[in-house]
Design a protein that fits this description.
By secondary structure, the protein is of the alpha+beta class. 52% of the residues lie in helices and 23% in strands. The longest helix has 25 residues.
Length: 164
């Protein structure tokens, strides 16, 4: 299938599929009409800043930087993103604590970072015919890592939420 034909097909991301399962009307407004509630953006700011910090941390780990450089750079990038998004002082401190905790938990884990923010796009298969449908599924994987003990290659996905 040519690249132009593949890119002209409808893309179903994990977020889009989740939105449809949660509420088909919400999905219609969000993806077909390109409308979104005003508060959706405010809820995503913390996660966007956190992802920016984690992306920086993962890239530093992949590049072989020291632990101090990795967390320091991650904190700087996350704080800049949080400031740009208008997060308040409490949210800034909460974000710093989340990144510190993540760093302490995972820095010495036996995983080698192979790729960061890797995009993917694949056709969905029509189960009745076994042929590709008119829909693609795609998105970005936060990271692809390899377990140095077993050699298994794994997809690493991060989610930020205000809920437990």
């Amino acid at each position: 299938m040519s690249r132009a034909r593949r890119l002209s097909r409808t893309l179903i991301t994990i977020s889009r599929a989740r939105a449809y399962r949660a509420c088909p009307r919400y999905h219609h407004y969000q993806y077909d009409q390109l409308l979104s509630p005003i508060d959706d953006e405010s809820l995503a700011r913390f996660g966007t800043a956190g992802h920016a910090g984690l992306e920086t941390w993962l890239l530093a780990k992949q590049a072989g930087c020291s632990a101090e450089v990795a967390i320091g750079d991650a904190q700087l990038v996350a704080a800049a993103s949080a400031h740009a998004a208008g997060l308040d002082a409490f949210e800034l401190e909460r974000l710093a604590a989340v990144l510190d905790g993540y760093h302490l938990m995972w820095w010495d884990a036996p995983y080698n970072v192979l790729a960061v923010e890797q995009q993917f796009r694949v056709p969905l298969i029509d189960q009745s015919t076994g042929e590709p449908s008119a829909l693609d599924q795609g998105g970005k994987m936060d990271a692809i890592v390899q377990d140095s003990r077993s050699g298994h290659v794994l997809v690493q996905e991060h989610k930020f939420t205000k809920e437990d």
